[in-house]
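This is your field. Have a critical look at both lines of this record:
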Amino acid sequence: MADPTAASAPAAHTASGPSPAVMATYARQNIVFERGAGCWLTATTGEQFLDFGSGVAVNALGHAHPHLVSALTEQAGKLWHTSNLYRVAGQERLAERLCQKTFADKVFFCNSGAEACEGAIKAARRYHYAKGNPERWRIITFQGAFHGRTLTALSAAGNPAYLEGFGEPAAGFDHVAFADLDAARDAITEETAAIMVEPVQGEGGVRILPAEFLAGLRELCDKHGLLLVLDEVQTGVGRTGTFFAYEQAGIVPDLMAIAKGIGGGFPLGAILATNDAASGMVPGTHGSTFGGNPLAMAVANAVLDVVLEDGFLEDVARKSARLRQGLAEIEDEYSDLVAEIRIAGLLTGLKLRDAVKPAQVVAASLAEKLLLVGASDNVVRLLPPLVVSEEEIADGLARLKRALSALRRTST
């Protein structure tokens, strides 16, 4: 135990590296940012970086968006937290807006994507319990998925690398091959409660599920009395060019987990549900101390003010087309390094050749003051804020080209 009378600790960060007081669960870049504006971040060194990572698809409206700052500042001067023992006006407004713009009838607020996914799992199982079928609790999921870092969410995804060392995985999940409708059909038993899927596997490598596959899952669920659970933590709130990705497949889920972009940088997750799917979630079945607090609600309502403004999502789609064009040129010019481009709106990925690793591209881009994010399946992600300008897209593509050129020189 640290001595509370000891002299003040040294600075939390130095030129040599991060403080050893922070648990080393991340391979962090040795850089500290002190402020941001739009798509740009400024480090303590004064260097400016073009942010095409958006805090892993979180900062949907970039950094220090004036409308979000105003909403948070105003709310901070009024009230921070009361708990869910009382009504929260911001929750009711945000829930009504989400229901108006989606399939949902009910919303539960939490703090993260992992919590949203776990809550959706609970709701799916509880639904069948309340209907008198407690034996129906198993959930079909897909290989390559990522639903969060809690033990149940990790078990739902089934990635052995993430589960190693944490004991037996949570039971109740049946993993099938990515985009294999026959495998999903064959996995259904009398114990199956739901099918859970990401429309686009972000962490899994920007792997996009075809619309016809999602429609096939909806048909399977309808035929067998299952709930269709979508994980739109990374794809939601405009990231793929529509408010939510499921709209592009012409389907309606029963439950949906969201987070990331809905908070615009403030921690927030939510479970969206139809009345029927939410019917088992009665008082005492679920809760969250901080979920839906007034600060988070103020920011999220401000996010919706911007994202649901006329023309905003159409503008995201136009920017996606510009980015697609530039990345296609990069795929041609650097075909020795890049095997494929994968694009769903402004959720984009470069599938690299086997000899190249995402960490190499991320490092080379960092040298060009461009921030990117790695992913599974040997993919590096470009996730610019939805407010990125065409000029910033062109700038980012130019920096990426310089990074790939440098990487090519060092590998030959």
Notes: The chain has two domains: 30-59+313-411, 68-307. Residues 30-59+313-411 form a domain with the Aspartate Aminotransferase, domain 1 fold (CATH 3.90.1150.10).
